[in-house]
tRNA (N6-threonylcarbamoyladenosine(37)-N6)-methyltransferase TrmO
Amino acid sequence: MSDYTISAIGHIESPYKQKFAIPRQPRLVPQAKAKLIFAPDFNREEFVRGLDEFTHIWLLFRFHETADKGYSAMVRPPRLGGNERKGVFATRATFRPNAIGMSAVKLEGIEYKNGQLSLLLAGIDLLDGTPIIDIKPYLPYSDAMFDASAGFADTRPETQMTVEFSPQAIEFVNAQTQYPDLHDFIANVLKQDPRPAYKKQKDGEQSYGMTLYNYNIRWQVNGEHNLVTSIEKN
């Protein structure tokens, strides 16, 4: 077998500053906006000429925060509650032999500002700083296979989780103007129930925190209800 050297063509500027709370798949949270910032060697508009004719693109990326932790032949998919093992190649787990992932995301625009080329993206599921190793246009006639089946992940993950904001949290959301979709963004992230599988099986009130953009968000979970208790600037 041969070894290959792959250089990143850019990196992602994402609202997700930690792995916790990132959706399991792309486009589950449409309000998750991000930028792909091109590296110097690829910071030319020629590289993306014609890309604005497509509404969606594939991103191939590197799981940079777990790449040094090796891989496992068998993993426990969160979709199965973390209780059943599947072969790593039957999943989209991060602990893979080459630590390569792929996401189909919405392309909202191409920006060339102050000498920097960027793609404006939505529905992202990538950690801030994720290295991008390739971009390909999404082709509906070829990539969307409507007669396909997907085994244990055949349907969109749904929860019964509800979300409520405390008066303090609502006041903060309404006062900030930088992110107009902040309320819906937080709500949709929490509706995905980002807790580890073993936590979902525990009774009683649980408290959590996450960082989205530059905000520290605290919330409580009781049964299938989320209460956002506070939002503060980091």
Observations:
- The longest strand covers residues 100-113.
- Helices lie at 140-143, 167-175, 182-191, 197-200.
- The mean pLDDT is 93.
